[in-house]
Design goal:
By secondary structure, the chain is mainly alpha-helical. The protein is built from 15 helices and no strands. The longest helix is centred in the first third of the chain and has 55 residues.
């Protein structure tokens, strides 16, 4: 249930949510940016790497099945407390599995735990963010997701520096894990808007699975999550293999993607408030499809990087708008966000192995073309994003 708060408490909660988003982005992107190092240290083929990446997606997917109920019972604040510790433990374990004691199994366990903690935190912080958006009376959800993107930009830059100075992966991931744990625990103290469940109150998760609008939003978020997740998992590897750049440059290319995605999330709120969700999402999805095509067929690294920049801009608003749409009605917001997240995170289960298997046959760079092949038909689902009053 929501609780009565003052304007200062709303601002404080907004700041706490923003920091949580940012640090969650740092944790996840630190792993993504060191994927090439993990591949080299563990001697993995594209297909084997895709299966390893599936471990994190499986952890996140499992989290989505339980996060709605957990958030409903504990409230977003305590859920974020627990998930921060889980995220940090997973990241540190993955670092040990890559560097100190090279092991595919240990690395897989680490990123599974990372995915579970991040996925649980994802639902909880989005529920609190939706309450902040309602309290403010204007679109701010993409800006919280922009903080997640800013976290990924910072992580990509630090990872590129770490690779350049040959910092051991184990040390790099351990330091980031400690920072994420401490920062998130402090930030979540400001959560005030979404309270815990009343005794005997149902979470409504099963009912949400029977709502046509919730399911349609989930399907669209699935495609949009696949569009974003494919870049997170594969864009650095695709440039290293397809354009023969070095690992540090591959991390920079990933940084370009998250930088333009961040820009789109910061300024996309203006477009959403002016023109509405449907026309803005149609435009950005077409931009994303065009950007992927340019990245694959650009012919030179410079042109291809421009395509990655357009891809990031086009991907910016999809996931945050999906979370806002799922939480349009305060009642059972955690349940609906959880259902949409479960459907959306299916993309993170299917995406890594799908692109990896395609990479074994046509190369990772050409394998990226599966993104526009899914994006274009998904345009038909965009009207489900309208607010209930507009529908």
């Amino acid at each position: 249930m929501a609780v009565t708060v003052s304007r200062d408490q709303v601002r404080s909660a907004a700041a706490g949510v923003a920091v949580t988003f940012g640090l969650n982005g740092v944790a996840v992107a630190t792993w993504f940016a060191r994927v090439p190092a993990a591949r080299d240290a563990l001697g993995l083929t594209p297909g084997a790497l895709g299966l390893l990446l599936l471990s994190m997606s499986a952890g996140a997917f499992l989290a989505m099945l339980t996060a709605g109920e957990v958030t409903h019972r504990l409230g977003p604040k305590r859920t974020v407390y627990v998930s921060a510790v889980v995220v940090s433990a997973g990241l540190a374990t993955a670092g040990v599995g890559i560097g100190a004691f090279p092991s595919v199994l240990l690395t897989g366990i680490g990123i599974f735990v990372l995915g579970y903690g991040s996925g649980t935190c994802d639902v909880a912080m989005n529920v609190e963010a939706a309450e902040v958006e309602r309290a403010l009376g204007r679109t701010v959800m993409p800006r919280f997701h922009a903080m997640w993107s800013l976290g990924t930009v910072a992580a990509a830059g630090l990872a590129s520096l770490a690779a350049w100075v040959l910092l051991p992966v184990t040390a790099h991931l351990a330091v980031v894990a400690a920072i994420v744990a401490a920062g998130t625990l402090l930030a979540a103290r400001a959560y005030k808007l979404a309270g815990e469940a009343e005794q005997g109150q149902s979470s409504g998760v099963m009912a949400a699975w029977r709502e046509p609008r919730t399911l349609l939003i989930g399907l669209l978020v699935l495609v949009l999550a696949f569009t974003e997740g494919t870049a997170n998992d594969w864009v650095a590897v695709a440039f290293i293999d397809g354009y023969q750049v070095d690992p540090a440059t591959g991390a920079i290319v990933f940084g370009v993607f998250v930088t333009t995605m961040t820009f789109g999330r910061i300024f996309g709120t203006i477009a959403l408030d002016r023109w509405g969700r449907v026309p803005v999402l149609v435009t950005t999805m077409l931009l994303a499809a065009s950007g992927v095509a340019l990245a694959v067929f650009g012919g030179s690294p410079l042109v291809a990087v421009a395509g990655v920049a357009v891809w990031g801009l086009g991907t910016a608003l999809g996931f945050p708008v999906g979370m806002s749409a799922a939480a349009d009605e305060p009642e059972r917001a955690a349940a609906r966000v959880s259902v949409v997240a479960v459907i959306g995170y299916t993309a993170f289960l299917a995406g890594p192995p799908l692109v990896g298997l395609l990479g074994d046959h046509v190369g990772v760079l050409r394998g990226l073309l599966v993104v526009p092949l899914l994006l274009l038909p998904a345009l038909a689902l965009v009207p489900a994003m309208r607010r209930p009053a507009e529908s």
